[in-house]
Amino acid sequence: MRTRLEALIDEMLDGHILLDEALGEFERLYIQKALHRHKHLSKTAKILGIHRNTLSKRVASYQKAPVAMVKAKRAGQ
């Protein structure tokens, strides 16, 4: 797994992906996969080792993120 991760990191560095972006994307995908696998918020939170309220807030923030990104892009135009 380490070799695959190192290759992915090299790709991201070559693409000038910022650390905050990389960490945020990893967390979002990790949580989405866990939710898809376990189907229940409380069970997923327990498996991830976080409180269900924390998980709920993070999931809600992911749903709001695309709107914020679109607004930021429009403001920059």
Describe the protein:
The structure is a single chain. With 77 residues, this protein is an all-alpha fold. The protein has one domain: Arc Repressor Mutant, subunit A (Orthogonal Bundle). The chain is built from four helices and no strands. The chain is globular, with a radius of gyration of 15 Å.
Summarize the helices and strands and which ones pair or pack.
Layout: H1 2-14, H2 19-38, H3 41-48, H4 52-76
Helix pairs in contact: 2-3, 3-4
CATH topology: Arc Repressor Mutant, subunit A
Helix/sheet category: mainly alpha
CATH architecture: Orthogonal Bundle
Number of helices: 4
N- to C-terminal distance: 41 Å
Question: Whole-number radius of gyration?
Answer: 15 Å
Largest sheet: none
**Helicity range:** over 70%
Instruction: State the CATH class.
Output: Mainly Alpha
Query: What general form does the structure show?
Result: globular
Instruction: List how many beta strands DSSP finds.
Output: 0
**What is the mean pLDDT?**
87
> What is the subunit arrangement here?
single chain
**Strand content range:** under 5%
Total individual domains:
1
Q: Would you identify the regions where 5 or more consecutive residues have pLDDT less than 50?
A: 67-73
Report the order of strands and helices: HHHH
In short:
The chain has 77 residues and is mostly helical.
Identify the notable features of this structure and list them briefly:
Arc Repressor Mutant, subunit A, 77 residues, 86% helix, mainly alpha
